[in-house]
Amino acid sequence: MRGIVKACVSGRPQARRLSYPSSTSRILHQRSAYAIQDTTKDTKNACAALTKHTDIKDVPRQHQRPARASAARPFTKKPANVFPSTHLTLPPSTIPPASVMARTAIYLVILAAIAPYLYDRWQALSAMLANRPGKLEPVYNIKSHKIKFRDRVRNCEDVVLDEGMGIAILSCDPGRDRWNTVMGTFRAENGLESGALWLYDYSTPDLPDDEAMKRLQWANFPNEADFHPLGIEFDHATATLYAVNHAQSGSALEVFTIDVNTATATHIQTFKHPLLHAPNSIHALGAGKLFVTNDHFFRAAVAPLLSKLETWLAPPGGSVVFVDLERPQESRVVARVAFANGVAMLNKTTLAVASTSRAGVYFYEVEPDYSLKSKGFVRTLAAVDNLSVDSAGALLMAGHPSGLALISVAKNRWKCDAQSEKEDERLACGCQSPSWVAEWTESGGLRELYKGGEFCSSTMAVRDKARGVGFVSGLYERGVMVFRE
């Protein structure tokens, strides 16, 4: 009884097990096995019950709480911890279930894992949005330019130089309007013109256009009616030219010997290999050894939807393949790259590979067995297409600042007929996809040379540093852009 009275008068809860007179015990034992627990509510209830049977005046004075202002202050002395302390807990309704907490943790882990990927995609796509029609800001860091041979060549994908002879070789395909295996255009039933290789003498002054630009004549080439060239490469030492042919009968590498004096391309062989399922660009290492890129894992002719998803989502579905024409069994994949496109040796030990989907260039160290070891990645301001290296060691690149504009051109290009009476067919021959040219050096970084819409859909830039002249080809453009610095 003494303990209860003391608790009621002093306001301090008691944690000792007590015994009571029968009248009080019946009331308190209905609520708890212990008289008073360490809670304010139970103390009040116990005191209320006690006052029914006990007169407060009967309580000894030493147990009464002094009637002074300080009595309302919080306790500074903690009661003796006779029983284990009772911790404050939230009501069950405010505590998330364990399953919800587990799911939240999983989502956070997934978000942390994909955050770098999302940031990478944003960097690539934001540049494209910034260069959309009406928003593109032109760049002109060249001395002058001129578009030549509009009435001679069109849809030229690639250009290679032989600076010693002062010539350029171009791969051009008018049939690309209706047959583009990369962009997913397959309209051969509407008539398909075959492609060609062109020889351009740019070093002889005052040469008439019809003599400066000559179409190479075929010799012993069985596939000349089904020739749709993309990337080309010229081995100066052996006068051997390699060309990617996206023929209707299947993609292959065509090998020629070039006679510049007679403007003749003599066919040597057609090379096919299971690893070259979507060949795009070539770099020759000599003695029949090549690096060849496959732009996609899913080909547009087989899986058009997956091919588009691969383009936009940028998984490393493309590849770099080491090819030995003399020992095909030694061919193997040496790198995986998202939309692998242009390829060029920056120096004797470093290979550069363009990634169109990621808008950048990968650099690899070439091992003695032609394996590749990653060295780094450089972000660009456009979707890079092809690469070249000039005599000063600068890496030149051309590409597409607005991929959406290029897709729009390719979508309706199959209707192109400049002589048609139908307006939509004449308009389909237009090209509103801007061009972009830049150079990169290790010391100076990336420097834009040209960005604008006067020349359409640039794919390759090459430069004769000694003569101060360069050339740009366009995937869906007429003619060649010739620039000077």
Largest sheet: 5 strands, antiparallel
Write down the CATH class of the largest domain: Mainly Beta
Q: Give the uncertain stretches in residue-range form.
A: 13-25, 31-39, 53-59
Number of DSSP strand runs: 28
N/C terminus separation:
107 Å
Helix fraction bin: 10-25%
| DSSP strand content | 25-35%
User: Please, what is the CATH homologous superfamily of the largest domain?
Assistant: TolB, C-terminal domain
Cofactor: Ca(2+)
Organism: Trematosphaeria pertusa
Family: Belongs to the paraoxonase family.
Keywords: Calcium, Disulfide bond, Glycoprotein, Hydrolase, Metal-binding
Structure characteristics:
5-stranded mixed sheet; calcium; Arylesterase; 35% strand; 28 strands; glycoprotein; alpha+beta
